[in-house]
Design a protein that fits this description.
The protein has 434 residues and is of the alpha+beta class. It contains nine helices and 15 strands. It has helices at residues 46-55, 87-94, 99-117, 183-199, 222-231, 243-286, 292-315, 319-331, 339-363; strands at 4-6, 9-17, 21-28, 33-40, 65-71, 74-80, 85-86, 123-124, 133-135, 141-143, 150-151, 365-369, 393-397, 406-414, 421-429.
Length: 434
């Protein structure tokens, strides 16, 4: 657009338009900064009402009015310029907003509306929608455009219909152009805005319906679906009767959601801790021969814990994405995961190592035999008494000896009747590998 000079302001960019006028980005030549200038439609006195209303309101989510101008039939309202984009464009880029963030923003907007509703001269905003909410670069919100706002107890033509179809409560668009709006109408508008943040579905566009939020994403909670559903009831008697009730319901949900998140994280820590302990036990058992049964039991427990987690995820209705995530953890190696395949490889390698270890034990065992005349062999038992006539058999693993060294083995015998002790000494040398 071409630059328009109005007093000390240069209007150089159109930011948006509504029923009461257009908003421009302007440069303040005196203060050397940008401002938002709203030019009202000619012949309307809405600007006076909006000016007086905004001058009396002070809240972190409201823009500050800095100036006003009149030139002939043109009326201008000058406010601080808000960097960022409106919530409608923000959601269109993102697709939707995380449930935690959406609830946080809805609580901030509820605080603002409580401030408006509970003043000595209550203000009904009547046009709560994403296009009227600015998202600053740091994530803070600002509510703009008070052109349709209405002082609850003012006299005159305050009952005219106002609002945006899809976000305005049915009573705002009443019969014969007469509005029945009250505080519950803003509850509807905030509920519809929260619906848009959670789903990305714009109720102001065909088919002009507000579906249950889990219709779009099964990961959204049932409790949040009930809160949004109650806020956008067509009959205002079925909605939350005040904005404070709506805020309390969201805060209660937020606290419960945080508790569920803590429980979920605790269960996750327990899950991986159990897997770690079982893995350590599995590794320890694999280092000892003769533990095949315990190894199989431990591996079965590991598989059971992994698949129990998968079945719990399916049972919680986390949707296809949640199940695929668990499957990727258990069955694939994406992002360094794939626990089941890792454990299966460990079991196979441990079994092979156990077999080779047993074979090595048999090959590397040195047998020292003491025989009688008949050539009989007897294994040593530490809880038995052997007469001298018996033959003893000693098994000494070669791994206990260093190659090339000579060791002395002393065998002591005792006569049980006379307690006379006799000893024999043997010299052992490990067999050199050829």
């Amino acid at each position: 657009m071409e630059e328009i000079k109005k007093g000390k302001y240069i209007l150089y960019e159109e930011l948006g338009s509504g029923g009461s006028g257009k908003v421009y980005r302007a440069f303040d030549r005196h203060l050397r900064c940008d401002r938002a200038v709203k030019r009202f439609n000619a012949g309307e006195d809405i600007w006076k009402k909006e000016l007086e209303m905004l001058k009396g309101l002070k809240h972190p989510l409201l823009p500050m009015v800095t100036d006003s101008m009149e030139e002939g039939n043109e009326r201008y309202l000058v406010m601080e310029y808000i960097e960022g984009k409106n919530l409608e464009s923000y959601v269109q880029e993102k697709g939707h907003i995380r449930q935690e963030q959406a609830v946080e923003w809805a609580l901030e907007l509820a605080d603002l509306l409580i401030y408006l509703h509970e003043r000595n001269s209550p203000v009904i905003y009547r046009d709560m929608k994403p296009a009227n909410i600015m998202v600053e670069p740091d994530g803070k919100l600002k509510l703009i455009d008070f052109g349709t706002a209405w002082l609850r107890y003012q006299e005159g033509g305050e009952k005219f219909c106002a609002g945006t179809y899809g976000y305005a409560a049915p009573e705002q668009l009443g019969e014969n152009g007469v509005s029945g709006a009250d505080e519950r109408s803003d509850v509807y508008g905030l509920g519809a805005t929260l619906y848009y943040m959670l789903t990305g579905d714009d109720p102001s566009k065909p088919p002009f319906l507000i579906h249950p939020i889990r219709f779009f994403d099964r990961r959204l909670s049932v409790e949040m679906e009930k809160i949004v559903g109650k806020a956008v009831e067509e009959e205002k008697g079925k909605r939350y009767q005040t904005m404070r009730q709506f805020k309390t319901a969201m805060e209660r949900y937020q606290n419960m959601d945080q508790m569920r998140e803590y429980i979920k994280k605790g269960a996750g820590i327990l899950y991986y801790s159990v897997l770690l302990c079982l893995g350590v036990l599995f590794a320890a058992l694999c280092s000892f021969p003769g533990q095949e049964k315990r190894i199989l039991v431990t591996s079965a427990l590991i598989f059971s814990v992994c698949f129990l987690r998968l079945f719990v995820s399916i049972g919680r209705g986390r949707g296809k994405r949640g199940v695929c995530r668990e499957r990727s953890i258990l069955l694939t190696e994406k992002k360094g995961k794939g626990l089941v395949l890792l454990l299966a490889a460990g079991i196979l390698s441990a079994a092979a190592a156990n077999v080779s270890h047993a074979s090595a034990e048999e090959e590397n065992t040195l047998f020292v035999n003491v025989r009688n005349e008949k050539g009989q062999k007897v294994l040593i038992r530490y809880d038995a008494v052997y007469p001298l006539a018996d033959v003893l058999k000693l098994e000494i693993p070669l791994r206990n000896f260093e190659k090339g060294e000579v060791y002395r083995l002393r065998l002591e015998c005792m006569n049980c009747e006379t307690e006379e002790k006799n000893s024999r000494t043997f010299y052992l040398k490990s067999i050199e590998s050829q």
